Each structure stands twice: as C-alpha cells, then as structure tokens.
C-alpha cells in the first residue's frame, strides 16, 4: 500500500505541474481576439517603448522562449499571431527575459551557460546507460558498469536540476518585469489582471514542468536495467 501511495505522489509531482501549465494556457487562450494586437506586435511595441531597439521576434515550433545568444523572442504560432490573454501575457514574459539580458542579470547568464553545458546531457546519459552492461562484461568489474549506469542517470536528470536551480530567473521575468510592464503600460484589461498572474506563474513553470517529464526517461532506463 505504501508503494502505491508513493507511486501516486511521484506521478503527481512529475505530471502535475505540466498538466496545470497546459490547463492555464488553454483556459486563457479564449476568446482568441480579446486584445487588439498580437503577441508579436506586443513584443515589437514593448521593444520600442522599453529601449530594446535590436530585439526581434520570430515564429517557432520549439516552444516560447527568449534566445539571449541572438537577442530574439521566439513565439509559437498561437502566441505570435494570437490576440488572447495567453498570447499577450506569454509575450510579455519573454520580453521580461530580454530586459534581464539588457540589464546584465547574472542568473540569466548562468542559466544560459548551464543549458549550453547540459544540452546533450540526455543523449550522453542514454549512451552511458546502454554502455554500462557491456563495460561490466568486458572489464569483468561490476563496479565499473554500476558507476557508468549511475553516471548516465545523473546526466539524464541534469536538465531538471538546471531548471530548478534557475527557477528564480523565471519568476523574476514574470513578476518583477512582465507584470509591472503590463500594468504600467495599461496593456491588460482590468478584469484580466488576476488571471495574468496565473498565466505568468504558468510561464515561469513551463521549463520546469517539461524537465520533470524527462525524469520518465530515468524511470524507463531503471526498469530496463532491473529486468
């Protein structure tokens, strides 16, 4: 019984944040024409008003994000062309990251370096875990295979660690930058202010929820090794 409860708690921790983020994003995607401008237009408007003349905005399929190496806000089609509260709020969140970049916000720089360092960590981790049994047989030393296996597990979980460590960067972009901008520039409709807070929380947790899903890779490999 205890294992069942533990399993349910673990599933809630892994899937819960992602499901909540998706629910919030979908909920405020309607009505689709709530605001007169699109997410992309808001990025351009804020870039002009906030002294970010070189900031560009592009359409992407790789998820909403700000790329500090190129100085580009990238939005998925529903945010780029959308006029919903979700589109407007997510666009403002990404502009918040652009402001961090302009201001030399140290945690953003650390996150960029960490993500760059761990970009291929999951592939490396999978390779190490596949190699572990063969290394153990070739070397006739189970300890080497075991060390290789746990090295692979740590590599697979590295993306979760990176995003948990840098979570304050996301909260800063949402609540110290995007929310004041949306309020001071009178972009939000009055009834939408409290809903925007939920959306900004969801935007801040997006990467963490995606990273938690990668823990399933660790669980799958663990199950394979135990067979």
Short description:
Helix content is 73%, strand content 6%.
Any chance you could write out the topology, listing elements then pairs?
Layout: H1 2-27, H2 39-49, E1 56-60, E2 65-67, E3 72-76, H3 77-80, H4 85-102, H5 106-117, H6 121-139, H7 142-156, H8 158-165, H9 167-184, H10 193-226
Parallel strand pairs: 1-3
Antiparallel strand pairs: 2-3
Helix pairs in contact: 1-10, 2-4, 4-9, 4-10, 6-7, 8-10, 9-10
Sum up the structure in keywords.
single chain; 227 residues; mainly alpha; three-stranded mixed β-sheet
Please describe what this structure looks like.
The chain has 227 residues and is mostly helical. The protein has ten helices and three strands; from the N terminus they run ααβββαααααααα. The longest helix is centred in the last third of the chain and has 34 residues, at 193-226. The chain is globular.
Strand content: 5-15%
- The whole-number mean of residue pLDDT values reads 81
In order across it, which strands form the biggest sheet? 1-3-2
Main sheet makeup: 3 strands, mixed
| Alpha plus pi helix count | 10
Structural class: mainly alpha
Number of strands: 3
Helix content: over 70%
Rg (CA only): 21 Å
Helix and strand string, N-terminal first? HHEEEHHHHHHHH
Indicate the overall shape: globular
Ranges where pLDDT stays below 50 over 5 or more residues in a row are none
């Amino acid at each position: 019984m205890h294992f069942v409860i533990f399993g349910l708690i673990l599933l809630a921790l892994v899937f819960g944040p992602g499901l909540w983020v998706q629910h919030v994003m979908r909920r405020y995607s309607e009505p689709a024409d709530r605001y007169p401008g699109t997410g992309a237009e808001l990025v351009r408007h804020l870039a002009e008003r906030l002294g970010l003349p070189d900031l560009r905005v592009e359409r992407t399929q790789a998820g909403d994000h700000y790329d500090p190496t190129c100085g580009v806000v990238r939005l998925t089609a529903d945010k780029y062309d959308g006029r919903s509260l979700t589109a407007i709020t997510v666009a403002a969140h990404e502009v918040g990251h652009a402001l961090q970049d302009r201001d030399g916000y140290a945690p953003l720089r650390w996150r960029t370096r960490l993500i760059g360092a761990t970009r291929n960590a999951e592939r490396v981790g999978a390779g190490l875990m596949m190699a572990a049994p063969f290394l153990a047989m070739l070397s006739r030393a189970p300890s080497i295979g075991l060390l290789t296996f746990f090295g692979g597990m740590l590599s697979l979980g590295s993306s979760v660690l990176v995003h948990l460590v840098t979570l304050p960067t996301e909260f800063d972009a949402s609540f110290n930058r995007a929310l004041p901008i949306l309020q001071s520039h009178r972009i939000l409709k009055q009834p939408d202010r409290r809903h925007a807070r939920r959306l900004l929380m969801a935007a801040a947790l997006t990467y963490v929820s995606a990273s938690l899903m990668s823990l399933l890779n660790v669980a799958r490999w663990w199950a394979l090794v135990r067979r």
